[in-house]
Amino acid sequence: MLYILKLENCLIDSKLTYYLWPSSTDLFVAGTDTTSSTLEWAMTELVLNPEIVSKAKKELEETIGKGKLVEESNITKLPYLQAIIKETFRLHPPVPLLLPRKAERDVEICGFTIPKDAQVMVNVWTIGRDPTLWDNPNLFLPERFIGSEIDIKGRNFELAPFGAGRRICPAVMLGVRMVSMVLGSLINSFDWKLEDGMKLEDVDMDEKFGITLQKTQPLRLVPLSIGN
């Protein structure tokens, strides 16, 4: 933003810089952190579920061609890849607790009273694993989203990893496009295996909770040339 203003020969006073610089930095860091976290969790689930990888590879090969990179124009033609990403958001939301809201007055919701000035945080991690909302909630099953109208744009409360309404993440669609292109390209361009000596049961699924949901132990994979 500062660069654009400079190109337009706008005068940038010190006060404007003071507010814009940290805000721009926060947006950039938040976007890259959540995207990388989502990609790592998606690849972790895929390496543990080779049958899902096979289905994704088949869709990619039939749609864009084997070994090609996924482009933005391809995304809507890859429903199984989108289902994988939605399932990753469900089990491993990039931000497990959405940004807090503050009650302006006493509010009663479902029999609970939220007092004025109380801060409310939505636990999307728990919602994504709620057995009253999802069948087999702890299993990674992209098929649950095939033919489903549930999306991640904040219209469906059971899957709202980016929030909803006026305070939904402003970069939600950019983030989803980035994850789609990178994850699809990783699947379509390489085969993947665990580092030498590691077995599937050795893959650590422990989560490190913070502002973003990270793996406690980073995933370590080795890319292989795809077979003919």
TrEMBL record:
Keywords: Heme, Iron, Metal-binding, Monooxygenase, Oxidoreductase. It holds the Pfam family p450. PROSITE patterns: CYTOCHROME_P450. It comes from Crotalaria pallida. It comes from the Eukaryota. Belongs to the cytochrome P450 family. Its cofactor is heme. PANTHER family: CYTOCHROME P450 76AD1-LIKE (PTHR47950:SF12), CYTOCHROME P450, FAMILY 76, SUBFAMILY C, POLYPEPTIDE 5-RELATED (PTHR47950). This is Cytochrome P450. Heme binds at C169. GO terms for molecular function: heme binding; iron ion binding; monooxygenase activity; oxidoreductase activity, acting on paired donors, with incorporation or reduction of molecular oxygen.
